[in-house]
Design brief:
The complex is a heterodimer of chains A (105) and B (417). Helices cover 8% and strands 31% of the residues of chain A. In chain A, the strands form 2 sheets. A 4-stranded antiparallel sheet of chain A has the order 3-4-5-6, with no helix packed on it. In chain A, strands 1-2 form a two-stranded antiparallel ribbon. The C terminus of chain A is likely disordered. In chain A, strand 5 and strand 6 form a beta hairpin. Chain A is mainly β and 105 residues long. Chain A contains 1 helix and 6 strands, in the order βββαβββ. With 417 residues, chain B is α/β, with parallel strands linked by helices. In chain B, helix 2 packs across helix 10 and helix 3 crosses helix 10. The two termini of chain B are 38 Å apart. The model of chain B has no long low-confidence stretch (mean pLDDT 94). Classes of the chains: A mainly beta (105), B alpha/beta (417).
Chain lengths: 105, 417
């Protein structure tokens, strides 16, 4: 079972209290009507699925109920950092996630 | 390589199988191939076999970072069925069931295909309506699937608890008689043996580092742990590792890799005649020929390449199974394991060409790729050989995520499958 540090509650708690909410730092396009089909595909479906450090969203469903971000290694499942929504990613983006820069707000 | 028959079985029995010969050579990597398939699981080995058998392409290598059949082919719960809702899926999965029937004879290798039937339990009104809709859709597509009352279900599967006061009452079941199980390792071994006999090289323990492309964008070969190897065509059939391999060719995919777990109990005498699945409580169960109950769990909620999984899922699965089958409450579990499954947003596979010339893709089978092995391998080989998809896999394009023409089995079943 993963132990996850909620950045709002400042407490390390078991995975069962949390819900995974997908890759982090993917912002909805500001100008939806001007997006091409390929851009919509990238926003909606393409994911880094990186084998290594992965920036992702979690929700402390059975605690404060708030969303936060985390960087976790997808091979060891070890959490490297958790941080509040709106904060920049604390560690450098890996190769697979560099492509996502145009999607970030 | 000798052909298996009743006579060779008898000879083997009389000589204590002391004269068993290797079933395929551990090949050396050549410098150039017509086709290289990345991933020596059932899908990859099967594609190599059909390339050699049906398309006469034998200068083929199947290359794997680990051992043959050591990924999801050797980690699944061996269930075979084709009762999918949409026309495209029904055709694809039923093509596989057609090929499963007769595969042992075709490969001259016993894959222990057993059409014991797959029963899907309905626990609430939504399940009943959704399964009946599936049954009608299946019948229109020529896929066998019938509705059973709780009593009929109990008659087929005596350990089932159909008490109306159960936590998850059984309100009926959908039943596909042509579904069942097969011996997963034997599928990989059988395809490997039959492909190697036709000249295919099987290269194990050789990780692919990158897919190389020429100035015009066409694939030129693979950079591997054993050096560069030229290839006219490259077909990636790497399940959970697909995103990592395809990223090296500059192709980014709508895939996420999740751990999926399964477990087996101690072996017991025959008690469980079918495969029983419960989508609502998310548990499925069958009994292997060795006597173990083979139990499948769900995927973890987070992306991971760990080939493990969290214990909360196992606990949840076993709690559900004990509720539906109280008879198993005192059964001991022997082992659990995990695999990494690549899941698409619409829960249908991607099976066809890519934007890169000479690069072909078979991925996104999520939690249910084993059942499709022969069908998928068959149409994938066609796609590689002809450079155009077979009519059966034509809808399963990568471009559907751009056009929006999804095959949304995720919405159809509302669960992973």
């Amino acid at each position: 079972m993963l132990l996850i540090d909620c950045p709002y509650c400042k407490e390390k708690l078991p995975e069962l209290e949390f819900e995974y909410a997908g890759q982090a730092h993917i912002a909805r396009p500001d100008n939806p009507s001007e997006q091409t089909d390929a851009e919509w595909r990238d926003y909606l479906f393409i994911r880094s699925n990186v084998r290594g450090d992965h920036a992702e969203q979690w929700r402390h469903t059975h605690g404060c109920g708030r969303y936060f971000n985390a960087v976790r290694n997808t091979v060891s499942d070890k959490f490297i950092a958790t941080y509040e929504i709106g904060q920049p990613r604390p560690t450098g983006a890996e190769k697979g996630e560099e492509h996502d820069e145009q999607l970030e707000s | 390589m000798s052909k298996f028959s009743a006579l060779t079985l008898l000879k083997g029995a009389l000589t204590d199988y002391k004269n068993v010969e290797p079933q395929w050579p551990d090949a050396e990597l050549k410098s150039e191939y017509d086709v290289i398939i990345v991933g020596a699981g059932g899908h990859g080995l099967g594609a190599a076999y059909y390339l050699a058998k049906e398309h006469g392409i034998t200068n083929v290598a199947v290359i794997d970072k680990g051992w043959l059949g050591g990924g999801n082919t050797g980690r699944n719960t061996t269930i075979i069925r084709s009762n999918y809702l949409y026309d495209e899926s029904a055709r694809l999965y039923d093509h596989a069931v057609d090929l499963w029937d007769g595969l042992s004879q075709d490969l001259n290798y016993n894959v222990m295909f057993s059409q014991r039937g797959v029963m899907m339990l309905a626990h609430n009104v939504h399940d009943v309506q959704s399964f009946k809709r599936h049954i009608h859709a299946n019948r229109l597509n020529g896929v066998d699937n019938v509705w059973l009352t709780p009593e009929q279900a109990k008659e087929k599967c005596p350990p089932l608890n159909i008490s109306p006061t159960a936590r998850y009452p059984v309100m009926g079941a959908a039943f596909q008689q042509r579904g069942g199980t097969a011996r997963h390792d034997a599928v990989a071994w059988g395809y490997a043996r039959a492909a190697a006999a036709r000249g295919v090289d099987i290269i194990q323990n050789c990780p692919v580092l990158s897919i190389e492309r020429g100035p015009d964008g066409t694939v030129t070969g693979l950079q591997t742990a054993r050096g560069f190897v030229k290839a006219k065509k490259i077909a990636v059939s790497a399940a959970g590792g697909t995103s990592v391999v395809m990223d090296t060719a500059g192709v980014r995919l709508p895939l996420e890799s999740y751990p999926l777990q399964a477990l087996v109990s101690e072996p017991v005498k025959p008690i469980f005649p079918q495969v029983v699945m419960s989508n609502t409580v998310h548990a499925y169960i069958s009994q292997s020929d060795k006597g173990e109950l083979v139990i499948g769990s769900g995927t973890d909620q987070y992306v991971s390449y760990s080939q493990r999984g969290g214990l909360p899922l196992i606990e949840h699965t076993l709690a559900s199974i004990c509720e539906v089958f109280p008879i198993f409450r005192r059964m001991r579990m022997l082992r659990k394991w995990g695999g990494v499954v690549d899941v698409t947003p619409d829960r249908s596979p991607i099976l066809g060409k890519t934007p890169v010339q000479g690069l072909y893709l078979n991925c996104g089978w999520g939690t249910g790729g084993f059942k499709a092995t022969p069908g998928s391998a068959h149409v994938f080989a066609h796609t590689i050989a002809k450079d155009e998809p077979h009519p059966i896999n034509a809808p399963f394009t990568l471009s559907r995520f751009e056009t929006g023409r999804l095959i949304d089995e995720a919405a159809a079943a509302a669960v992973a499958h």
